[in-house]
Design goal:
Blueprint (H helix, E strand, L loop, with lengths): L1 H16 L12 E11 L2 E11 L4 E6 L5 E8 L2 E6 L4 E4 L2 H9 L5 H7 L10 E4 L5 E6 L2 E7 L9 E7 L4 E10 L3
Antiparallel strand pairs: 1-2, 1-11, 2-3, 3-4, 4-5, 5-6, 7-8, 8-9, 9-10, 10-11
Amino acid sequence: MKAFAAAAVLAALLAACATVTLAPRDPQPFDLLGRILVTYSGGALTGNLRWEHTSDEDHIWLMTPTGQTLAYIVDSAQGATLTRADQKQYRASSVEALTRQALGWSLPLSLLQYWVRGEAAPGPAELERGADGRVVALTQNGWRVAFNYYSEGETSGLVRRIDLSDGSNEIRLVIDTWRNVT
């Protein structure tokens, strides 16, 4: 019985350490401002977000609703770094592992860089399309993703809101401003 319990604990630890499949970096740059709501097993977070994405790196600011930076994340080929408001720094090989370690929830950044455009990341995905042909929902790498799009103005056709769920985490990203989208 003890051997079975030890094996179960070992299996759980290995599953917790398993690496997430990361998508290749999307070369198309963008800069967006929005709001984020995260519900996870340890609590909830609501605030603002700024994300600058280039073909080489990502810079993400998670801020309070009044604009104070809670966390600043940099992701590049050298790895990911998160600096909290108290100046404590965390480092990991990916933003997914980094946010899980420092914040208690995983931000699927390598996939999200595609999802914010209403596209699946490279790799297997189940897509649901609307009457206009746009992706309205997808399932990829254990995440269920639903999209809402802007319908008028210069942002027409761009993603307005994304709802993500992996069973234990729920993330809602509302994009208020798109800049440098080509």
